[in-house]
Amino acid sequence: MELSSAAERQNFTARPRYDATAGVLIGSECADCGARSWPGRGICNRCGSPRLEQVALAPAGSLQTYTTVHVARPGLAAPYLLGQVRLDDGVRVHAHLRGLAADAHVPLRVRLAFAADLETVPPFHFEPE
Amino acid sequence: MSTEVEVAGVGMHPFGRFPESSLKDLARVAVVRALDDAGLGIKDVEAVYAANGMAGLLQGQEQVRGQSVLREVGIERVPVVNVDNACAGGSTALRLAAQAIALGEVEIALVVGFEKMFVDDLDRSLAALETAADLDLIGGLGLQFTAIYAMRLRRILDAGLLEHRHLVEVTVKSHRNGALNPYAQHRKPVSAAEVVAARPIADPLTLLMCSSMSDGAAAIVLARGGRVERPERIRIRASASTSGFSRLDDDEPSIGTICAERAYARAGLGPADVDVAEIHDAMAPAELLYYEQLGFCEPGGAGELFDSGATAIEGRLPVNPSGGLSSRGHPVGATGVAQVVELTWQLRGSAGERQAKEPRIALAQNSGGWYEGESAACNVHILERTTAWS
Protein backbone atom coordinates (compact mmCIF):
# COMPACT_ATOMS: atom_id res chain seq x y z
CA MET A 1 0.00 0.00 0.00
CA GLU A 2 1.28 3.44 -0.89
CA LEU A 3 2.25 5.85 1.84
CA SER A 4 -0.05 8.40 0.20
CA SER A 5 -3.05 6.33 1.27
CA ALA A 6 -2.45 7.74 4.77
CA ALA A 7 -3.40 11.17 3.46
CA GLU A 8 -6.93 9.84 2.91
CA ARG A 9 -7.32 8.48 6.43
CA GLN A 10 -10.29 9.51 8.54
CA ASN A 11 -9.51 12.67 10.52
CA PHE A 12 -7.89 12.13 13.90
CA THR A 13 -10.69 13.77 15.86
CA ALA A 14 -13.33 11.73 14.00
CA ARG A 15 -11.80 8.38 14.97
CA PRO A 16 -13.27 6.60 18.00
CA ARG A 17 -10.91 6.43 20.97
CA TYR A 18 -12.99 4.03 23.04
CA ASP A 19 -16.13 1.90 23.03
CA ALA A 20 -17.69 2.27 26.46
CA THR A 21 -20.34 -0.38 25.79
CA ALA A 22 -17.72 -2.97 24.96
CA GLY A 23 -15.50 -1.60 27.73
CA VAL A 24 -12.44 -1.14 25.55
CA LEU A 25 -10.13 1.53 24.15
CA ILE A 26 -9.97 1.78 20.36
CA GLY A 27 -6.54 2.20 18.79
CA SER A 28 -4.66 1.23 15.68
CA GLU A 29 -2.80 -1.93 14.68
CA CYS A 30 -0.20 -2.15 11.93
CA ALA A 31 -0.97 -4.86 9.37
CA ASP A 32 2.74 -5.11 8.56
CA CYS A 33 4.53 -5.20 11.92
CA GLY A 34 1.66 -5.66 14.36
CA ALA A 35 2.48 -2.60 16.52
CA ARG A 36 -0.53 -1.20 18.32
CA SER A 37 -1.04 2.38 19.44
CA TRP A 38 -3.50 4.44 21.47
CA PRO A 39 -4.89 6.76 20.32
CA GLY A 40 -4.61 5.37 16.81
CA ARG A 41 -2.15 6.91 14.38
CA GLY A 42 -2.10 7.79 10.70
CA ILE A 43 1.15 5.94 10.02
CA CYS A 44 2.84 3.19 12.03
CA ASN A 45 5.40 4.63 14.44
CA ARG A 46 7.48 1.45 14.44
CA CYS A 47 7.82 0.53 10.75
CA GLY A 48 6.39 3.50 8.83
CA SER A 49 3.67 1.48 7.13
CA PRO A 50 0.36 3.19 6.26
CA ARG A 51 -1.49 -0.14 6.61
CA LEU A 52 -3.15 0.60 9.93
CA GLU A 53 -6.43 -0.83 11.05
CA GLN A 54 -8.75 0.26 13.81
CA VAL A 55 -8.71 -2.26 16.63
CA ALA A 56 -10.13 -2.80 20.12
CA LEU A 57 -7.29 -2.90 22.63
CA ALA A 58 -6.91 -5.30 25.54
CA PRO A 59 -9.21 -4.22 28.39
CA ALA A 60 -6.79 -5.17 31.16
CA GLY A 61 -3.11 -5.01 31.87
CA SER A 62 -0.39 -4.39 34.37
CA LEU A 63 -0.17 -1.22 36.43
CA GLN A 64 3.52 -0.44 36.05
CA THR A 65 3.59 2.54 38.35
CA TYR A 66 1.37 5.20 39.91
CA THR A 67 1.38 8.27 42.11
CA THR A 68 -0.97 10.09 44.42
CA VAL A 69 -0.98 13.73 43.35
CA HIS A 70 -1.52 16.26 46.13
CA VAL A 71 -1.71 19.45 44.04
CA ALA A 72 -5.23 20.14 42.75
CA ARG A 73 -5.91 21.26 39.19
CA PRO A 74 -9.04 23.01 37.94
CA GLY A 75 -11.82 20.40 37.90
CA LEU A 76 -9.59 17.88 39.62
CA ALA A 77 -9.62 17.82 43.42
CA ALA A 78 -6.54 16.58 45.27
CA PRO A 79 -5.53 13.98 46.06
CA TYR A 80 -5.99 12.07 42.80
CA LEU A 81 -4.34 8.93 41.48
CA LEU A 82 -2.46 8.69 38.20
CA GLY A 83 -1.07 5.48 36.77
CA GLN A 84 0.89 4.00 33.87
CA VAL A 85 -0.62 0.80 32.53
CA ARG A 86 0.88 -1.69 30.08
CA LEU A 87 -2.18 -3.27 28.43
CA ASP A 88 -1.98 -7.00 27.75
CA ASP A 89 -1.42 -6.29 24.05
CA GLY A 90 1.56 -4.07 24.82
CA VAL A 91 0.10 -0.58 24.54
CA ARG A 92 1.12 1.84 27.28
CA VAL A 93 -1.70 4.04 28.59
CA HIS A 94 -1.69 6.75 31.26
CA ALA A 95 -4.93 7.23 33.14
CA HIS A 96 -6.61 7.93 36.44
CA LEU A 97 -6.90 5.08 38.93
CA ARG A 98 -9.64 4.22 41.38
CA GLY A 99 -10.01 1.70 44.16
CA LEU A 100 -6.29 1.29 44.75
CA ALA A 101 -5.23 0.23 48.25
CA ALA A 102 -3.21 2.86 50.12
CA ASP A 103 -0.22 0.52 50.26
CA ALA A 104 -0.54 -0.81 46.71
CA HIS A 105 2.68 -2.25 45.34
CA VAL A 106 3.43 -2.42 41.61
CA PRO A 107 3.22 -4.26 39.29
CA LEU A 108 -0.48 -4.90 39.87
CA ARG A 109 -3.24 -6.27 37.62
CA VAL A 110 -5.80 -3.61 36.61
CA ARG A 111 -8.83 -3.44 34.36
CA LEU A 112 -10.33 -0.61 32.32
CA ALA A 113 -13.58 0.92 33.61
CA PHE A 114 -15.81 3.69 32.29
CA ALA A 115 -17.57 6.50 34.12
CA ALA A 116 -21.39 6.31 34.25
CA ASP A 117 -21.42 9.76 32.67
CA LEU A 118 -19.30 9.63 29.51
CA GLU A 119 -19.05 13.42 29.51
CA THR A 120 -16.56 13.00 32.35
CA VAL A 121 -13.05 13.99 31.22
CA PRO A 122 -11.38 11.58 30.84
CA PRO A 123 -14.33 9.14 30.68
CA PHE A 124 -12.36 6.06 31.72
CA HIS A 125 -10.00 4.93 34.46
CA PHE A 126 -8.37 1.73 35.66
CA GLU A 127 -9.11 -0.22 38.85
CA PRO A 128 -7.64 -3.36 40.41
CA GLU A 129 -8.93 -6.62 38.90
CA MET B 1 32.15 18.65 13.77
CA SER B 2 34.12 20.00 10.85
CA THR B 3 35.03 23.32 12.45
CA GLU B 4 35.84 23.46 16.16
CA VAL B 5 33.23 25.25 18.22
CA GLU B 6 34.40 26.95 21.39
CA VAL B 7 32.63 28.52 24.34
CA ALA B 8 33.84 32.12 24.22
CA GLY B 9 31.70 33.61 26.97
CA VAL B 10 28.97 32.74 29.45
CA GLY B 11 26.62 34.72 31.66
CA MET B 12 23.54 34.35 33.82
CA HIS B 13 20.82 36.32 35.48
CA PRO B 14 20.24 34.65 38.85
CA PHE B 15 17.32 32.23 38.94
CA GLY B 16 14.48 32.96 41.36
CA ARG B 17 11.44 35.20 41.70
CA PHE B 18 11.87 38.63 40.12
CA PRO B 19 8.48 40.37 39.91
CA GLU B 20 10.08 43.68 38.89
CA SER B 21 11.99 42.19 35.94
CA SER B 22 10.51 41.40 32.53
CA LEU B 23 11.88 38.86 30.08
CA LYS B 24 13.79 41.75 28.47
CA ASP B 25 15.50 42.54 31.77
CA LEU B 26 16.36 38.93 32.60
CA ALA B 27 17.79 38.33 29.12
CA ARG B 28 19.66 41.66 29.05
CA VAL B 29 21.64 40.78 32.16
CA ALA B 30 22.55 37.30 30.92
CA VAL B 31 23.49 38.46 27.39
CA VAL B 32 25.57 41.41 28.55
CA ARG B 33 27.47 39.22 30.99
CA ALA B 34 28.16 36.55 28.36
CA LEU B 35 29.37 39.05 25.77
CA ASP B 36 31.46 40.88 28.35
CA ASP B 37 32.96 37.55 29.39
CA ALA B 38 33.91 36.90 25.75
CA GLY B 39 35.28 40.42 25.30
CA LEU B 40 32.80 41.04 22.51
CA GLY B 41 30.06 43.54 21.77
CA ILE B 42 26.50 43.05 20.65
CA LYS B 43 27.41 43.90 17.04
CA ASP B 44 29.88 41.03 16.93
CA VAL B 45 26.96 38.59 17.14
CA GLU B 46 26.23 37.06 13.74
CA ALA B 47 23.33 34.79 14.67
CA VAL B 48 21.04 34.28 17.65
CA TYR B 49 19.34 31.14 18.95
CA ALA B 50 16.73 32.05 21.57
CA ALA B 51 15.05 29.44 23.76
CA ASN B 52 11.83 29.95 25.65
CA GLY B 53 9.03 27.62 26.61
CA MET B 54 6.03 29.55 27.82
CA ALA B 55 6.12 33.26 26.97
CA GLY B 56 3.24 32.64 24.57
CA LEU B 57 0.91 31.44 27.29
CA LEU B 58 2.32 33.37 30.24
CA GLN B 59 3.26 36.73 28.71
CA GLY B 60 1.18 36.59 25.52
CA GLN B 61 4.30 36.83 23.33
CA GLU B 62 3.58 33.75 21.24
CA GLN B 63 5.64 34.72 18.19
CA VAL B 64 9.03 36.36 17.51
CA ARG B 65 10.02 36.03 21.16
CA GLY B 66 13.74 36.35 20.53
CA GLN B 67 13.47 39.45 18.37
CA SER B 68 11.11 41.07 20.91
CA VAL B 69 13.07 40.22 24.04
CA LEU B 70 16.47 41.03 22.47
CA ARG B 71 15.33 44.34 21.00
CA GLU B 72 16.28 45.58 24.46
CA VAL B 73 19.97 44.76 23.83
CA GLY B 74 20.10 46.06 20.28
CA ILE B 75 19.93 42.77 18.43
CA GLU B 76 18.63 43.37 14.91
CA ARG B 77 19.36 42.43 11.30
CA VAL B 78 21.09 39.15 12.22
CA PRO B 79 19.13 35.88 11.93
CA VAL B 80 17.19 35.01 15.08
CA VAL B 81 15.90 31.46 15.48
CA ASN B 82 13.21 31.00 18.11
CA VAL B 83 13.48 27.62 19.78
CA ASP B 84 10.96 25.68 21.83
CA ASN B 85 11.57 22.13 22.97
CA ALA B 86 9.94 22.41 26.39
CA CYS B 87 12.54 22.01 29.14
CA ALA B 88 15.13 20.98 26.52
CA GLY B 89 14.81 24.23 24.56
CA GLY B 90 18.06 25.69 25.87
CA SER B 91 20.22 22.76 24.78
CA THR B 92 18.39 22.61 21.45
CA ALA B 93 19.30 26.27 20.84
CA LEU B 94 22.90 25.51 21.83
CA ARG B 95 23.05 22.63 19.39
CA LEU B 96 21.70 24.73 16.51
CA ALA B 97 24.20 27.50 17.22
CA ALA B 98 27.06 25.01 17.32
CA GLN B 99 25.91 23.56 13.99
CA ALA B 100 25.84 27.02 12.38
CA ILE B 101 29.45 27.59 13.42
CA ALA B 102 30.54 24.08 12.46
CA LEU B 103 29.07 24.65 9.00
CA GLY B 104 31.20 27.76 8.66
CA GLU B 105 28.20 30.02 8.18
CA VAL B 106 28.99 32.26 11.16
CA GLU B 107 31.91 32.73 13.54
CA ILE B 108 30.09 34.17 16.55
CA ALA B 109 26.67 32.95 17.68
CA LEU B 110 24.67 33.92 20.74
CA VAL B 111 22.61 31.33 22.60
CA VAL B 112 20.15 32.71 25.11
CA GLY B 113 17.42 31.08 27.17
CA PHE B 114 14.88 33.10 29.15
CA GLU B 115 11.75 32.27 31.09
CA LYS B 116 9.37 33.99 33.49
CA MET B 117 7.13 31.46 35.23
CA PHE B 118 5.90 33.53 38.18
CA VAL B 119 2.74 35.26 36.97
CA ASP B 120 0.83 35.48 40.28
CA ASP B 121 -1.48 32.67 39.18
CA LEU B 122 -0.07 29.22 39.90
CA ASP B 123 -2.85 27.52 37.89
CA ARG B 124 -1.83 29.42 34.74
CA SER B 125 1.80 28.40 35.19
CA LEU B 126 0.86 24.75 35.84
CA ALA B 127 -1.42 24.73 32.81
CA ALA B 128 1.37 26.16 30.65
CA LEU B 129 3.76 23.46 31.88
CA GLU B 130 1.27 20.74 31.03
CA THR B 131 1.33 21.79 27.36
CA ALA B 132 4.75 20.09 27.13
CA ALA B 133 2.87 16.93 26.11
CA ASP B 134 0.35 15.89 23.45
CA LEU B 135 -2.91 17.34 24.74
CA ASP B 136 -4.84 14.65 22.85
CA LEU B 137 -3.29 12.11 25.21
CA ILE B 138 -3.24 13.95 28.53
CA GLY B 139 -6.30 16.22 28.42
CA GLY B 140 -8.07 16.21 31.80
CA LEU B 141 -5.54 13.87 33.43
CA GLY B 142 -3.72 16.49 35.50
CA LEU B 143 -0.42 14.99 34.37
CA GLN B 144 1.85 17.40 36.23
CA PHE B 145 5.60 16.94 35.79
CA THR B 146 5.94 16.18 39.48
CA ALA B 147 3.60 13.22 38.89
CA ILE B 148 5.58 12.07 35.86
CA TYR B 149 8.80 11.87 37.86
CA ALA B 150 6.98 10.42 40.86
CA MET B 151 5.79 7.54 38.68
CA ARG B 152 9.26 6.93 37.25
CA LEU B 153 10.65 6.73 40.78
CA ARG B 154 7.88 4.63 42.34
CA ARG B 155 8.48 1.87 39.85
CA ILE B 156 12.15 1.64 40.77
CA LEU B 157 11.44 1.84 44.50
CA ASP B 158 8.87 -0.96 44.27
CA ALA B 159 11.34 -3.07 42.28
CA GLY B 160 13.76 -2.72 45.19
CA LEU B 161 16.41 -0.99 43.05
CA LEU B 162 16.45 2.18 45.15
CA GLU B 163 15.57 2.92 48.74
CA HIS B 164 13.45 5.87 49.82
CA ARG B 165 16.43 7.26 51.74
CA HIS B 166 18.29 7.68 48.42
CA LEU B 167 15.59 10.07 47.23
CA VAL B 168 15.96 12.04 50.43
CA GLU B 169 19.75 12.08 50.53
CA VAL B 170 20.21 13.14 46.92
CA THR B 171 17.84 16.02 47.65
CA VAL B 172 20.03 17.04 50.59
CA LYS B 173 23.02 16.99 48.22
CA SER B 174 21.19 19.13 45.67
CA HIS B 175 20.38 21.80 48.26
CA ARG B 176 23.88 21.64 49.74
CA ASN B 177 25.33 22.40 46.29
CA GLY B 178 22.72 25.05 45.51
CA ALA B 179 23.61 26.85 48.73
CA LEU B 180 27.11 27.38 47.30
CA ASN B 181 25.83 28.86 44.03
CA PRO B 182 25.18 32.63 43.99
CA TYR B 183 22.94 32.20 40.93
CA ALA B 184 20.73 29.54 42.54
CA GLN B 185 17.08 30.02 43.46
CA HIS B 186 17.23 27.83 46.59
CA ARG B 187 20.30 28.66 48.63
CA LYS B 188 19.51 27.07 51.97
CA PRO B 189 20.88 23.66 52.99
CA VAL B 190 18.14 21.29 54.15
CA SER B 191 18.23 18.24 56.42
CA ALA B 192 16.92 14.79 55.57
CA ALA B 193 14.23 15.27 58.22
CA GLU B 194 13.10 18.50 56.56
CA VAL B 195 12.91 16.78 53.14
CA VAL B 196 10.76 13.96 54.56
CA ALA B 197 8.50 16.33 56.52
CA ALA B 198 7.94 18.73 53.61
CA ARG B 199 4.49 18.94 52.05
CA PRO B 200 3.71 15.91 49.81
CA ILE B 201 3.44 16.89 46.13
CA ALA B 202 3.15 13.58 44.24
CA ASP B 203 4.13 10.49 46.22
CA PRO B 204 6.99 9.76 46.81
CA LEU B 205 8.02 13.38 46.07
CA THR B 206 7.82 16.14 48.66
CA LEU B 207 8.09 19.87 48.07
CA LEU B 208 11.82 20.05 48.78
CA MET B 209 12.55 17.39 46.14
CA CYS B 210 10.89 19.38 43.35
CA SER B 211 12.03 22.31 41.26
CA SER B 212 9.69 25.25 41.63
CA MET B 213 8.42 28.06 39.43
CA SER B 214 11.36 30.22 38.44
CA ASP B 215 12.33 33.36 36.55
CA GLY B 216 15.75 33.61 34.95
CA ALA B 217 17.98 33.77 31.91
CA ALA B 218 21.30 32.34 30.78
CA ALA B 219 23.49 33.09 27.76
CA ILE B 220 26.46 31.58 25.95
CA VAL B 221 28.62 33.06 23.21
CA LEU B 222 29.90 30.34 20.88
CA ALA B 223 32.79 31.03 18.52
CA ARG B 224 34.71 29.31 15.78
CA GLY B 225 37.81 27.75 17.31
CA GLY B 226 40.55 30.33 17.77
CA ARG B 227 38.32 33.30 16.93
CA VAL B 228 38.25 34.55 20.54
CA GLU B 229 41.37 34.45 22.70
CA ARG B 230 40.89 33.03 26.19
CA PRO B 231 43.26 31.80 28.89
CA GLU B 232 41.47 28.44 28.95
CA ARG B 233 39.93 27.01 25.80
CA ILE B 234 36.75 24.97 26.01
CA ARG B 235 35.25 23.28 23.01
CA ILE B 236 32.06 21.40 22.31
CA ARG B 237 33.34 17.91 21.67
CA ALA B 238 29.97 16.32 20.88
CA SER B 239 26.31 17.20 20.55
CA ALA B 240 23.53 14.62 20.27
CA SER B 241 19.77 14.91 20.12
CA THR B 242 16.81 12.54 20.21
CA SER B 243 13.05 12.76 20.51
CA GLY B 244 10.56 10.62 22.37
CA PHE B 245 9.10 7.34 21.17
CA SER B 246 6.55 4.77 22.32
CA ARG B 247 8.32 1.99 24.14
CA LEU B 248 6.50 -1.19 23.27
CA ASP B 249 8.97 -3.16 25.32
CA ASP B 250 10.30 -1.96 28.67
CA ASP B 251 13.67 -3.54 27.95
CA GLU B 252 14.22 -1.14 25.08
CA PRO B 253 16.85 1.54 25.86
CA SER B 254 15.36 4.85 26.94
CA ILE B 255 15.67 8.06 24.96
CA GLY B 256 18.25 9.26 27.50
CA THR B 257 20.41 6.18 27.02
CA ILE B 258 20.20 6.41 23.24
CA CYS B 259 21.12 10.09 23.28
CA ALA B 260 24.05 9.58 25.66
CA GLU B 261 25.43 6.67 23.64
CA ARG B 262 25.24 8.78 20.51
CA ALA B 263 27.11 11.64 22.21
CA TYR B 264 29.82 9.31 23.59
CA ALA B 265 30.29 7.74 20.15
CA ARG B 266 30.68 11.15 18.51
CA ALA B 267 33.11 12.27 21.18
CA GLY B 268 35.10 9.04 21.06
CA LEU B 269 34.67 8.90 24.83
CA GLY B 270 32.78 6.85 27.38
CA PRO B 271 31.02 7.57 30.65
CA ALA B 272 34.22 6.82 32.60
CA ASP B 273 35.87 9.83 30.93
CA VAL B 274 33.36 12.33 32.34
CA ASP B 275 34.80 14.49 35.13
CA VAL B 276 31.74 16.61 35.96
CA ALA B 277 28.11 16.56 34.83
CA GLU B 278 25.00 18.74 34.92
CA ILE B 279 21.93 16.56 34.46
CA HIS B 280 18.21 17.11 34.25
CA ASP B 281 16.99 16.71 37.83
CA ALA B 282 13.68 18.55 37.50
CA MET B 283 12.99 16.68 40.73
CA ALA B 284 16.17 16.07 42.75
CA PRO B 285 15.80 12.25 42.84
CA ALA B 286 15.67 12.16 39.02
CA GLU B 287 19.43 12.52 39.20
CA LEU B 288 19.49 8.86 40.29
CA LEU B 289 17.51 7.77 37.22
CA TYR B 290 19.91 9.52 34.89
CA TYR B 291 23.04 7.99 36.45
CA GLU B 292 21.98 4.76 34.79
CA GLN B 293 20.79 6.28 31.50
CA LEU B 294 24.07 8.16 31.08
CA GLY B 295 26.10 5.04 31.80
CA PHE B 296 27.56 6.35 35.07
CA CYS B 297 26.52 3.05 36.69
CA GLU B 298 25.23 -0.37 35.72
CA PRO B 299 21.46 -0.94 35.65
CA GLY B 300 20.25 -0.96 39.25
CA GLY B 301 23.48 0.59 40.51
CA ALA B 302 22.33 4.18 41.08
CA GLY B 303 21.94 3.86 44.82
CA GLU B 304 25.36 2.32 45.20
CA LEU B 305 26.98 5.04 43.07
CA PHE B 306 25.31 7.73 45.14
CA ASP B 307 26.24 6.04 48.44
CA SER B 308 29.90 5.91 47.35
CA GLY B 309 30.04 9.71 47.43
CA ALA B 310 31.35 9.79 43.84
CA THR B 311 28.77 12.33 42.72
CA ALA B 312 29.38 14.87 45.50
CA ILE B 313 31.44 17.95 44.59
CA GLU B 314 34.53 16.39 46.15
CA GLY B 315 33.87 13.00 44.50
CA ARG B 316 35.36 11.55 41.33
CA LEU B 317 32.28 12.46 39.23
CA PRO B 318 30.53 15.51 40.69
CA VAL B 319 26.93 15.67 39.43
CA ASN B 320 25.01 18.92 39.52
CA PRO B 321 27.54 20.98 41.48
CA SER B 322 25.32 23.98 40.62
CA GLY B 323 22.46 22.51 42.64
CA GLY B 324 20.84 21.26 39.44
CA LEU B 325 17.35 22.14 38.33
CA SER B 326 15.85 21.43 41.71
CA SER B 327 18.04 23.90 43.62
CA ARG B 328 19.54 26.28 41.04
CA GLY B 329 16.00 26.65 39.69
CA HIS B 330 14.32 25.60 36.47
CA PRO B 331 13.15 28.51 34.32
CA VAL B 332 12.33 26.16 31.47
CA GLY B 333 13.93 27.77 28.40
CA ALA B 334 17.01 28.90 30.36
CA THR B 335 17.86 25.58 32.00
CA GLY B 336 19.76 23.86 29.19
CA VAL B 337 21.84 26.98 28.69
CA ALA B 338 22.52 27.37 32.42
CA GLN B 339 23.82 23.79 32.60
CA VAL B 340 26.53 24.60 30.07
CA VAL B 341 27.27 27.94 31.73
CA GLU B 342 27.96 26.03 34.95
CA LEU B 343 30.09 23.43 33.18
CA THR B 344 32.11 26.20 31.52
CA TRP B 345 32.84 27.70 34.92
CA GLN B 346 33.77 24.26 36.19
CA LEU B 347 36.13 23.61 33.26
CA ARG B 348 37.73 27.02 33.69
CA GLY B 349 38.20 26.48 37.42
CA SER B 350 36.13 29.53 38.29
CA ALA B 351 33.22 27.85 40.10
CA GLY B 352 34.29 29.08 43.52
CA GLU B 353 33.18 27.03 46.51
CA ARG B 354 31.49 24.44 44.31
CA GLN B 355 34.52 23.82 42.09
CA ALA B 356 35.20 20.23 41.00
CA LYS B 357 38.83 19.16 40.97
CA GLU B 358 40.46 20.09 37.65
CA PRO B 359 37.82 18.64 35.30
CA ARG B 360 38.68 18.17 31.63
CA ILE B 361 35.55 16.49 30.23
CA ALA B 362 32.07 17.71 31.16
CA LEU B 363 28.65 16.36 30.20
CA ALA B 364 25.30 18.18 30.06
CA GLN B 365 22.02 16.29 29.72
CA ASN B 366 18.81 18.24 29.19
CA SER B 367 15.40 16.64 28.70
CA GLY B 368 12.06 18.17 27.84
CA GLY B 369 8.39 17.41 27.59
CA TRP B 370 6.53 14.14 27.88
CA TYR B 371 5.89 11.46 25.26
CA GLU B 372 3.96 8.43 26.51
CA GLY B 373 6.05 8.08 29.65
CA GLU B 374 9.36 9.14 28.10
CA SER B 375 10.77 12.60 27.53
CA ALA B 376 9.68 14.27 24.29
CA ALA B 377 13.21 15.59 23.70
CA CYS B 378 16.69 14.91 25.02
CA ASN B 379 20.03 16.52 24.22
CA VAL B 380 23.47 15.56 25.48
CA HIS B 381 26.50 17.80 25.05
CA ILE B 382 30.07 16.89 25.90
CA LEU B 383 32.51 19.72 26.53
CA GLU B 384 36.27 19.53 26.71
CA ARG B 385 38.87 21.80 28.23
CA THR B 386 41.70 21.66 25.70
CA THR B 387 44.07 23.82 27.76
CA ALA B 388 46.16 21.82 30.22
CA TRP B 389 45.62 22.47 33.93
CA SER B 390 48.80 24.14 35.19
Shape of chain A: elongated
Q: How many helices of chain A? A: 0
Measure the end-to-end span of chain B: 28 Å
Q: In CATH terms, what is the fold-level topology of the largest domain in chain B?
A: Peroxisomal Thiolase, Chain A, domain 1
Question: Major sheet of chain B, described briefly?
Answer: 5 strands, mixed
The shape of chain B, in one word, is globular
- Uncertain runs of chain B with pLDDT below 50, 5 residues or more? none
Strand content of chain A: 35-45%
Detail the poorly predicted runs of chain A.
Answer: none
Element order of chain A: H for helix, E for strand: EEEEEEEEE
Largest interface: A-B, 34 and 35 residues
The CATH architecture of the largest domain in chain B can be given as 3-Layer(aba) Sandwich
Total number of helices of chain B: 14
What's the average pLDDT of chain B?
97
What do the pLDDT scores of chain A average to?
Answer: 96
> What is the end-to-end distance of chain A?
40 Å
Summarize the structure in short:
Chain A has 129 residues and is an all-beta fold. Chain A contains no helices and nine strands.
How would you explain this protein's 3D organization?
The complex is a heterodimer of chains A (129) and B (390). Chain A has 129 residues and is mainly beta. Chain A has two domains: 3-56, no CATH class; 60-128. Chain A has strands spanning 18-19, 24-30, 36-37, 52-56, 60-69, 80-87, 92-97, 108-114, 124-128. Chain B has helices at 23-38, 55-58, 65-70, 89-102, 122-130, 135-138, 145-158, 164-178, 192-197, 255-267, 286-293, 302-307, 324-328, 332-348; strands at 5-16, 47-51, 80-83, 108-116, 200-202, 205-206, 215-224, 234-243, 276-278, 361-368, 377-385. The longest helix of chain B has 17 residues, at 332-348. Chain B is globular and about 55 Å long. Chain B is an alpha/beta fold and 390 residues long. The A-B interface holds A 12, 35, 37, 39, 45-46, 64-71, 73-76, 80, 82-84, 86, 90-92, 94-96, 105-107, 121-122 and B 123, 126-127, 136-144, 146-147, 150-152, 154-155, 158, 199-205, 245-250, 372-373.
